[in-house]
Amino acid sequence: MVETERLICASEDLQERGTGIGFSLPDAGKTQQSGFVIRYDGKVHGYVNRCAHVPVTLDWQEGDFFDLSRHFLICSTHGAQYLPETGRCVLGPCKGKSLQKLNVVERDGRIYLIETTPVESHL
Ligand code: FES
């Protein structure tokens, strides 16, 4: 496996429990997917932007992933609520399921997506 880092945004662009930042994910041969990052309790978390209930994006308004309490991520379609730290659904039609977590890292004032790709054998 080869790991590569892709710059998503500057740290200052991602405010505590504020608007999330979306980005495209590599086409896995099926539908085009997107991801997003949010900041919660100071830490950055990244997820695939797809509800665990029905494969739709979570944010009706772009970047609007938090509920009104700013303690949960919420799907704007049917209201599933997810823990920001783990992506686990705690309320709604997909309770017990989880968002797909992405590997993100914050370093030197920037936030990166860590992408892993298989190494092709040339034997
Ligand atoms: S589509 Fe997200 S809660 Fe149903």
From TrEMBL:
The alphabetized UniProt keywords are:
2Fe-2S, Iron, Iron-sulfur, Metal-binding
Which residue intervals define the domain Rieske in the entry?
41-113
Q: Which GO terms describe its molecular function?
A: 2 iron, 2 sulfur cluster binding; metal ion binding
Q: Which Pfam families match?
A: Rieske
CDD domains, A to Z: Rieske (cd03467)
Concerning InterPro entries, the annotation shows: Rieske_2Fe-2S (IPR017941), Rieske_2Fe-2S_sf (IPR036922)
Entry keyword Transcription? no
| Protein name in the entry | (2Fe-2S)-binding protein
What is the protein's species of origin? Answer: Novimethylophilus kurashikiensis
